[in-house]
Amino acid sequence: MVRLPYLTALTTLFSYGLLFAFGQLRDFFRKIIDWSKSSSKDLKGYAPICLGLEDFYTRRLYLRIQDCFSRPIASAPDAWIDVVERYSNDNNKTLHRTSNTTKCLNLGSYNYLGFAAADEYCTPHVIDSLKKYSCSTCSVRVDGGTTDLHTELEELVARFVGKPAAITFGMGYVTNSAIIPVLIGKGGLIISDSLNHNSIVNGARGSGAAVRVFQHNNPLHLEEVLREQIAEGQPRTHRPWKKIIVIVEGIYSMEGELCQLPEIIAVCKKYKVYTYLDEAHSIGAVGKTGRGVCELLGVDPADVDIMMGTFTKSFGSCGGYIAASKEIIQYLKYTCPAYLYATSMSPPAVQQVISAIKVILGEDGSNRVGGFLIDLVTPGAQKLARIRENSNFFRSELQKMGFEVLGDSDSPVMPIMLYNPAKIPAFSRECLRQNVAVVTVAFPATPLLLARARICISAAHSREDLIKGLEVISKVGDLAGIKYFPVEPPKHETQGHKELE
Ligand SMILES: Cc1ncc(COP(=O)(O)O)c(C=O)c1O
Ligand SMILES: *[C@@H]1O[C@H](CO)[C@@H](O)[C@H](O)[C@H]1NC(C)=O
Ligand SMILES: *[C@@H]1O[C@H](CO)[C@@H](O)[C@H](O)[C@H]1NC(C)=O
Questions:
Q1: Residue 12: which domain range?
Q2: Ranges for the Aminotransferase class I/classII large domain (predicted)?
Q3: Ligand 2 pocket: which residues have CB below 6 Å?
């Protein structure tokens, strides 16, 4: 829950009001100038192709701080990255790359387990697969696009998440946006968490099913909506819904919050409706053996009908999966357009996921010496312990400093609330100046008033990295005035220090 302070809400609204007013004023003058030039040569009878409030937002708000976004990098998204320096000759309207880069601490990538950079086990396997299979299959799955790697991956993913079968796609976004319309259509009902990812929103819209939204992560409200919808049935005809699917995420990527999965599953079982769980940010990242929120929260995967996830975060690759019953997966393979008409996942990307899962499972040979199984801490287990310790350390230190940090413990995603639009570039630019690369997010990815910086912690970060990051964020936080909830200084000065060391 955000605890937006009253005064901050007021100043934030005022800032947006001011930006909006000046933007409108500038648009107004621009219109007069265009009009006085008489021939509006842009249009020539065509309706304008770009218009609307979001276009206004882009031109008058986003463009003013666009140097904080889409920063090119010139390295793997490891604990440290090379950020390409840019310059502008027109007040940041256009930005140009230089050949210089700056080494920065990376607090922005979804590299939860550290598989994004070269890995002792994964990288050689990926290089071999590149030599053997090349970058692309140049074919869709049902033609020539299914390699032995693809089938191995699907079996492995199913086993890893604890479902009978799985299907994979070349892109996580498409996995949601193309699968949802296959699972449900006209006469069906989707009940969606209010903060679900855009890929789910677009999949739901494209499906033709009715969509109802329940309050973010609130099982009580979900039950209320469900009961009402089941009683009402379809609009006008009041026929019963053909089917109902509830869609939630494991970890909400803009909030860092864990899903209230056990409670939500209980509600869904009570009303006999299907559940669809997007584990993009939680698979690999949480749970004792990396199996996601089901493992962390003690939910039997058999109770989740459709388990979705992506390979773009914890596994350091690309693509997405759906894991479900054999029957559902077979149905998807016969009918899903993204399976039938899109070129299959790149084989080296497939190999990367296979290798990463094997490391996580300890099946990379690291627990065998001379053919004997031995009991020791595998690199995979180390990574899992590391991401958890790193995340919990970073989160508690940020909270001690007085930042408003969203999300739950164990979650590697931790948004720091900025609120005020002026604080977005202030925070981002000042961190970058001190060699810490952070991601800031604002409207339309978040509600207008709730701009934030989103920190993503990785198993690749060392304790020194995290301490450096905390020092810089603390300094910049003082400068930008975003320590909204100052905590009492500890009685014994040394105590706080010790923990940092
Ligand atoms: C919850 C969720 N689902 C789906 C996706 C899309 O996955 P991809 O980026 O792999 O296309 C994302 C991406 O960040 C996500 O956060
Ligand atoms: C342009 O970007 C630079 C670097 O991020 C920043 O320091 C500067 O203030 C920006 N200029 C304007 C006019 O916004
Ligand atoms: C790259 O950095 C060096 C040293 O800071 C500087 O002298 C040079 O001008 C920079 N080059 C560009 C293209 O910005």
A1: 6-106+385-480
A2: 103-473
A3: 67, 88, 91-92, 429
